[in-house]
Amino acid sequence: MRYGAEDDDLERSTTNVMAFGLVLMLAFILVFPLYRILEPANREEARATQVASLAHEGENLWGFNCASCHGETGLGGIGPALNSKEFLQAASDEQIELIVAVGVPGSAMGAYSQDFAGPLTSAQIRALSTYLRSLEDEAPSNPNWRAGAPAEATADSGDDTAAADDSE
Ligand code: HEC
What we know:
Bound molecules: heme C
CATH superfamily of the domain at 49-164: Cytochrome c-like domain
Shape: rod-shaped
Radius of gyration: 30 Å
CATH topology of the domain at 49-164: Cytochrome Bc1 Complex, Chain D, domain 2
Structural class: mainly alpha
């Protein structure tokens, strides 16, 4: 019986396992804060990408469904100018979505939600409000947005000139 020798082996392997465990624990201790620092940035980036792609979808929907009345770039036409700093500051996304969904009774503004016999899903309406919101930073000042296009943009033939005149 050579207990002594076996104890030596056992002790060596126990020490090895403990050292390994310690290294692993230190690695976790270091990695978790790193994860906590990097993860919000990743999520923020993913969110920005998502918003950009939703806005892009909204822009396409805008061209088909809204541009004829509100102008190709939203500067207004027979309908209000929605690409207006004042409008976008005054209206929340929820308000915009609600108006688009149910329409404005007694006006040319129809109900676009499929729930109200319109053509669009609520996801598409969300895309449209995301598109309009994406215009806010660069939106020209137009406090009379309900009057449609501002004077210089309405000049004669409408939307194309409006887009070109997009100064401040
Ligand atoms: C046939 C013309 C027409 C089309 C197409 C149209 N609108 Fe309108 N829209 C109007 C008119 C007119 C008003 C003003 C209604 C009122 O208040 O009398 C209006 C009002 C609005 C308002 C409220 C603006 C405010 O000043 O409060 C929003 C938001 C809006 N439209 C979004 C859209 C979106 C998004 C689309 C495309 C899905 C769209 N509209 C398509 C004519 C139109």
